[in-house]
Amino acid sequence: MNRLNRKGHQGTRRNIEKSVTDLSGLNHRNLSVHEVSCYLANFMKNVWLAVLLLSSLAWAQARPEEGGNEFQVWTGGGHSVPGGTKDTGVWNAGVRYGWILTKPHGPGFLKGRFEYVLDATPLFMVFQPRNTAYGGGFSPLGLKWDFATRGSVAPYFELNGGTLFTNKDVPAFTNDVNFTSAAAFGVHVFGKYAWSLEARYMHISNAGLATPNPGINTVQVRLGVGKFWHR
């Protein structure tokens, strides 16, 4: 059974990686809404297969522990706020993989563990007054502080940064390659799965690759579901 589970996990992982690769090339193609919808449907099918596979493995639902890991599927959206381009909405979906790096540290209620996280975002939609841009990205720089609590609810704080590639300029008349930086505060709710709900501030800009560079500041709400485990 374990051998079958490993084979199924490897096959599903290859399908997800292919979906991410396909969608990351959106900035090189002028895709129709129908094509993007097909890509998204294929990606989400593979992600949910991965979630079902994870739930079938012989891992008891765990909390963040040193040497443990996290897998999560998430989606979120929000709107622009003052300080950059106005009247812009965003929606995105992706997957996360994390490594718990440390034992609990810190005083009192601040006590927690460091976690390093990677986010792949194969779908990132930017709703601009002039058009709607479709794209994808990757956030390889993620540091998360998982507060150490004893109950079924545990808060966390994180900082991360990455890239965003789109099929149209974001904002309009700037560039189709951007960088993202974000800060988030949320809570995990532990049960059969680890659910998360968070508020996220994200800044999007081209870091001077093009002029002008007004950037976009957004506040988003993100919902995720996944698992922590410790072998």
H/I helix tally: 2
Spatial strand order of the main sheet? 1-2-3-4-5-6-7-8
Spatial separation of the terminal alpha carbons: 17 Å
Estimate the mean pLDDT confidence. 84
Shape: elongated
Secondary-structure element order, as H and E? HHEEEEEEEE
- The whole-angstrom Rg is 18 Å
Helix coverage percent of residues? 10-25%
Beta-sheet strand percentage?
Answer: over 45%
Question: In this structure, how is the largest beta sheet organized?
Answer: 8 strands, antiparallel, barrel
For the secondary structure, the number of strands is: 8
Can you give a write-up of this model?
The chain is of the alpha+beta class and 231 residues long. The protein contains two helices and eight strands, in the order ααββββββββ. Strand 3 (112-127) and strand 4 form a beta hairpin. It has helices at residues 2-24, 33-56; strands spanning 69-80, 89-100, 112-127, 132-147, 153-166, 177-190, 194-205, 216-229.
Put the structure in a nutshell.
The protein has 231 residues and is an alpha+beta fold.
Give the topology, please.
Layout: H1 2-24, H2 33-56, E1 69-80, E2 89-100, E3 112-127, E4 132-147, E5 153-166, E6 177-190, E7 194-205, E8 216-229
Describe the structure using short key phrases:
8 strands; disordered N terminus; 231 residues; alpha+beta; eight-stranded antiparallel β-barrel
